[in-house]
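Input.
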Amino acid sequence: MAVETKFTLQVDWNNDGVFTGTGEDVSARTLSLQWSRGRDAGTQLVALSVAGQMDAVLNNNSGDYSSFNTASPLSGNLLPGRKVRLLAGNKEGFPYTFPIVFEDNVIWKGSIDSIEPSPSVGDINKAVFHCIGPLGVLNQKHASLAMSTSILTGTLIGDILNDAGWPAGDRDIEVGKTTVTRFWLDRMLALNALRVVEQTEGGFLAESRDGKVVFEDRHHRLLTAGTTSQATFTDAVGAARGYSRIRQIDPLPFIFNEFEAHIRLYTVGALATLWTLAESGADSPSLVPGESRTFWAQFPNPDSTTDAFGVDAWTTPVATTDYIANTKSDGTGTDRTSSIAVIVSKFGEAMKITLTNNHAVDIVFLTLLQARGTPITSKDPVRVSANDAISETRYGERTFTARTDFIPGTDEGQNWADYHLSIYKDPVILLEMTFAPNKDENHRAEALGRDLSDRITVVGTGKAGLGVSADFFIEAEHNVFTEEHESMTTWLLSQAEQFSDFWVLGVSKLGIDTRLAY
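Output.
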């Protein structure tokens, strides 16, 4: 029996953190919706979580969503970054029963990226809200981290999010299994930095339904919740849960039979002057009374040929040793170094130095400014690898190289290579499955309640003719709700078997789960 799914779409126009202001419930004007989140392909190794997206088409006959319409009650608030959330249900309540409970029945949450009015002569005027998820926001921010040592991947994820200004309450971060020997960042896009840590851990960076950044470590799917199928979808006639379309994604591009990891360790050098301000003499920078100026000491210099990689520890500048201020640019005037206040922020390849002239009347010249620290240089790098000759003969040589320099040593590098080789040397079944949530309550409950990394069973041994009857993990979702109130949900699925028969201490059954996870 067909059912109708109702949604509540809200926008925090006044940016107060709640969705109860005037005009913030836009459900009545919503004509169609489509939203997605998860990986850009079904495979876990190559595919990455892309920024979640939602396009909402709204009736704009009122002109409320036209940014240049000063008569709009939302004038001045039609801005990028305003929070958006989609809820299952309507303002009368949430009458549905879900297989899992999630916060406020939120099924997508993100931010407005742009609003595109689309006037029409013969039809209604419309406006398209283009919205992005948390990863899209983080792709617009940068992160820099000071040098740290012996730090878990989950902690690094948290540090990157902190530096990017991501709220502590909008994250769900697992501790991680890998302890990184040494890590630093120098003004890298926050999303790229997070992906470096994701690759180092062999984990999964994603977005939750309610707008959180999620980090699953590499054992997440080996634990109890990932070992039990939550639902079965089949091509059998009259089945409780079926699908309207299914296709097998070509697995050949995702077969790899040689894995390489490049391991890099470092040596800490002696304290030295690592940077000196080039301007001196007549070119010495000046500060009027009360003025502050910021200088960035960079090491290594991007144009240098040094083999250094960064700085283990910067030394806070010391008066007369690292900076000198004088009333004359050639240094022959009155020394005013004691009138200079210094504030620094230290990063792996840079130190931000802010100097303030606190003298009441004198203009001062900076006749010396330098930065000292202990540089780090690379030891001889080493490459570890693992390969499978049978797979190479069958499919040709296919090499995958770890996209990180932070695997902590050759032992873990070898474990990384062996682990992934055992999974990807043979084809992994990848599926794209579509079903109609409005078909009945069973299908609607699955569409609204199932989440990324959930395990389900798919049977395609009947009319589908795929010869498939196996468990899969949900890697991505895409949902469409049309103006005619038709809805479709599409999942990208990766075969679960290769990822669930590893042996994990305290969880797996000896003799049944036989491959060792690391």
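The helical segments are 134-138, 153-163, 190-201, 224-227, 389-395, 410-424, 441-449, 497-500.
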